[in-house]
C-alpha cells in the first residue's frame, strides 16, 4: 500500500518557492497542503500561477499555515533575517522544517533554530539542492578511492552570476535588513558547502578572507573570496563568489593521484543529466605535446531533478519520524551548522582586516 504523502505548507511567495513547489509536485511522497502569504490575494495568485492542487489551502498569514493541523512540514523561503522567528515557531508547532539557505545570519541564530527542532523532535534540512543529485554521490565515490584519487590536497570553488536589471538595487539579497550576508550567504554558501563536502566535512582550522571585497551603498557584500587552511596537513581550499561576474558554478578538486572538475554543480545545465570530468595518474606525452590519459567525462542521469530528489528525501525522513520508525536525521543540521560556521569566520576575517580567523564550532 502506498504511503500517505507528506503534507507541506509554504511560508511566503518568494521566487525560489516556484521552483521548490514544482519539486513538491514532482516528488512522489509529498503534496502541497497550504500556502501562506502576507496577503490572501497573493497566496491565491501564487497557487494558481504555479498549478497547486485544488485542495491546497490559501492563507493571508504565515501563522495560519503553522496552525493548520493538515500541515506536517513547512518550507521556509523567507528572507534570512526572518528565519529565526518562523523556523523556531514552526518547530514549536511540531512542523518539520525545510529551510532555504543561508539558514541564518550567524551560528548563534542557527543554534536556536536547531534547538527548537531537536526539542520538538522534528526534522531540519536546508535546501541545498545539489547535495541530492546522484552525480554528487558518484563524485564522492571517486574522491574516496585512494587508488584513483590519492590524498585530497586542494579544492577551489566558484559560484557567480550577474545580477541583472534592478537586482543590485532592489533584490532581497542586497538588502541589509533582509539578507545582510549578501553574496556570501547566497552564492558563497554553495561554494563553502562544496569545499566541506569534498573534505568529508572536516572543518578548516583557519579562514582568511581575500582583500577588497565589493559592496553596495548599503554595505552589503556583492563579491568576495577566502582561503581555508587545515594546518600541518598540506590541505587548502579557496572560493570566490560574486554578483558581478558571468554565471560560473565550478568545483576543482586535486588529489595526489587524480583530479575532478564539475562546471555546473549548483544547477545542472540540463536538469536530467549531471556531467563531470575526472582523471587519474596524468603525465606528459612525448615532448610535452599533450597529456595522457585525457580526463573522462561522466554523465549521471536522473529522472527527477535534484530539487525534487531533495524534497523526496525530506519527505522520506518525515515519514519515518511521523510513523514512529525513526528519529530526526542529525546529518543535515550538522552539515548546515558547519557551513554557517565557515561563513561566520569569513565575516570575522573581513571585519578583522583580512587576518586569519579560527573556525569556531
From TrEMBL:
Source superkingdom: Eukaryota
Ranges of residues in domain Gfo/Idh/MocA-like oxidoreductase N-terminal: 6-125
InterPro entries for the chain: Gfo/Idh/MocA-like_OxRdtase_N, GFO_IDH_MocA-like_dom, NAD(P)-bd_dom_sf
GO molecular function annotations of the record: nucleotide binding
Residue stretches making up the GFO/IDH/MocA-like oxidoreductase domain: 138-261
Family: Belongs to the Gfo/Idh/MocA family.
Protein name: Gfo/Idh/MocA-like oxidoreductase N-terminal domain-containing protein
Lineage: Eukaryota, Viridiplantae, Streptophyta, Embryophyta, Tracheophyta
Amino acid at each position: 500500500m502506498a504511503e500517505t504523502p507528506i503534507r507541506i505548507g509554504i511560508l511566503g511567495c518568494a521566487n525560489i518557492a516556484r521552483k521548490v513547489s514544482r519539486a513538491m509536485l514532482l516528488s512522489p511522497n509529498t503534496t502541497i497542503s497550504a500556502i501562506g502569504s502576507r496577503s490572501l490575494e497573493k497566496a491565491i495568485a501564487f497557487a494558481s500561477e504555479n498549478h497547486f492542487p485544488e485542495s491546497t489551502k490559501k492563507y493571508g498569514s504565515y501563522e495560519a499555515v503553522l496552525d493548520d493541523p493538515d500541515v506536517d512540514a513547512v518550507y521556509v523561503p523567507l528572507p534570512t533575517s526572518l528565519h529565526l522567528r518562523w523556523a523556531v515557531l514552526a518547530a514549536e508547532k511540531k512542523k518539520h522544517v525545510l529551510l532555504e539557505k543561508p539558514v541564518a545570519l550567524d551560528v548563534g541564530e542557527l543554534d536556536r533554530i536547531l534547538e527548537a527542532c531537536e526539542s520538538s523532535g522534528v526534522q531540519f534540512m536546508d535546501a541545498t539542492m545539489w547535495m541530492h543529485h546522484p552525480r554528487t554521490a558518484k563524485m564522492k565515490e571517486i574522491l574516496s578511492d585512494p587508488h584513483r584519487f590519492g590524498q585530497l590536497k586542494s579544492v577551489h570553488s566558484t559560484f557567480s552570476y550577474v545580477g541583472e536589471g534592478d537586482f543590485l538595487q532592489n533584490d532581497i539579497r542586497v538588502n541589509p535588513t533582509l539578507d545582510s550576508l549578501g553574496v556570501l550567504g547566497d552564492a558563497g554558501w554553495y561554494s563553502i558547502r562544496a569545499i566541506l563536502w569534498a573534505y568529508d566535512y572536516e572543518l578548516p582550522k583557519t579562514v582568511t578572507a581575500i582583500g577588497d571585497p565589493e559592496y553596495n551603498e548599503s554595505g552589503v557584500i556583492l563579491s568576495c573570496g577566502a582561503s581555508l587552511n587545515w594546518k600541518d596537513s598540506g590541505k587548502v581550499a579557496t572560493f570566490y563568489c560574486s554578483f558581478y561576474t558571468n554565471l560560473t558554478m565550478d568545483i576543482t578538486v586535486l588529489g595526489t593521484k587524480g583530479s575532478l572538475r564539475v562546471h555546473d554543480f549548483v544547477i545542472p545545465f540540463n536538469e536530467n543529466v549531471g556531467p563531470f570530468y575526472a582523471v587519474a595518474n596524468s603525465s606528459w606525452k612525448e615532448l610535452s605535446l599533450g597529456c595522457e590519459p585525457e580526463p573522462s567525462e561522466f554523465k549521471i542521469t536522473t529522472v527527477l531533478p535534484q530539487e525534487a530528489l531533495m524534497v523526496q528525501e525530506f519527505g522520506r525522513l518525515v515519514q519515518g519520524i511521523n510513523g514512529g520508525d525513526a528519529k530526526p536525521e542529525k546529518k543535515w543540521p550538522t552539515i548546515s551548522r558547519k557551513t554557517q560556521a565557515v561563513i561566520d569566520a569569513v565575516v570575522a576575517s573581513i571585519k578583522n582586516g583580512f587576518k586569519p580567523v579560527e573556525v569556531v564550532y
